[in-house]
Amino acid sequence: MRALTVVPLQPNTLALSNVEEPVARENQILARALALGVCGTDREIIAGHYGEAPEGADRLIIGHESLSEVVSAPLPGAI
Ligand SMILES: [Zn+2]
Q: Which structural domain, as residue segments, surrounds residue 7?
């Protein structure tokens, strides 16, 4: 899948990257983004002010404000 990513703490590394499809872990839902917003927090991360990639990754996926549809919700009442 494609995602907007940055190298945290390095300004202007924003890229449209190909990343692995996510897999829902225990007690998590899996959602497919339909529309994405870029907010002030994303702009600060892109500027290199802060941010942290997940353990074992070099890049951080940004765009936490989205309109999404639920693909799977393994637990009753999880959504
Ligand atoms: Zn935000």
A: 2-72
